[in-house]
Write a sequence for this structure.
């Protein structure tokens, strides 16, 4: 710990309360261990010194005692008589703990998780949340999967990707973040899920969109075709006279909703695909058919 809290925070003895607060805010953010992964050990030591300095200067009574030479930079009495003097001073002026000055609020503002334990001199702080990104396949996202996240230190974190997770959704693992300084509770692990696109499926809320090709004879005569869904292949009946772009709904073949009560649907859009080679027989048939049965396709 630094002997002089003013030097530790880089401020003058005449600094106002607001200047003390701003200096602490700036340094706490600059040296937070999560923001300095390459020098985490050194950053942890520096943040301890910064916290100790603010413990003195962020408390009006402790600052008065330090300025009067009654306590040192660690908040310890410089002599036996100082204890009685400090106690009398607190009784006359009213004691102000560090939270009165807003230490907890400052840390919370900075990192969204600041907490102090009993007794500021040995304050415990909640550990930092650790953030990770996990890429999963499309089908893993809609079906759910057991995955492993590799941490920066080489360790592994196993987690269950829930069924129906969406792209960009953040999964919170309680207590799997950084260990809290001075015995504080551990932070959480926040895992952002990135879903890889699929060649055949697209997601629209809890519905699945897909496009399947059909032959010209299936379109004209109708028939049954096999369609791939997220849970396997099913049969779809194509009515006689089906046009390209027509959509069919497969009930319950989509993604299970977050509540788990029901699943969305799969919307299958058909696309008529001609054979690679149009032979003379097909050409003659269509020529004769068009001559006798010409119709308006509705083009504008």
């Amino acid at each position: 710990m630094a002997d002089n809290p003013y030097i530790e925070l880089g401020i003058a003895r005449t600094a106002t309360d607001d200047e003390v607060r701003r200096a602490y805010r700036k340094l706490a953010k600059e040296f937070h261990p999560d923001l300095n992964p390459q020098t985490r050990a050194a950053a942890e030591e520096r943040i301890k010194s910064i916290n100790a300095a603010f413990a003195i200067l962020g408390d009006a009574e402790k600052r008065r005692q330090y300025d009067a030479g009654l306590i040192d930079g660690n908040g310890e009495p410089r002599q036996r008589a100082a204890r009685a003097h400090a106690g009398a001073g607190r009784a006359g002026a009213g004691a102000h703990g560090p939270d009165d000055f807003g230490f907890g609020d400052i840390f919370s503002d900075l990192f969204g998780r600041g907490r102090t334990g009993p007794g500021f001199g040995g304050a415990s702080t909640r550990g930092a949340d650790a953030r990770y990104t996990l890429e999963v396949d499309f089908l893993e996202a809609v079906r759910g999967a057991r995955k492993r996240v590799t941490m920066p230190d080489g360790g592994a974190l196993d987690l269950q990707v829930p069924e129906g997770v969406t792209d960009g959704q953040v999964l919170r693992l309680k207590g799997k973040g950084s260990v809290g300084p001075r015995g504080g509770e551990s932070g959480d692990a926040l895992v952002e899920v990135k879903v890889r696109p699929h060649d055949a499926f697209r997601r629209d809320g809890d519905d699945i969109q897909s496009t399947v090709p059909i032959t010209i004879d299936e379109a004209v005569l109708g028939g049954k075709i096999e369609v791939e869904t997220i849970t396997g292949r099913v049969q779809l009946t194509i009515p006689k006279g089906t046009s390209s772009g027509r959509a069919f709904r497969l009930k319950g073949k989509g993604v299970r909703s977050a509540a788990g009560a029901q699943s969305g649907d799969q919307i299958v859009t058909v696309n008529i695909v001609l054979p690679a080679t149009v032979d003379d027989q097909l050409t003659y048939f269509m020529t004769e058919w068009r001559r006798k049965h010409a119709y308006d396709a509705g083009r504008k």
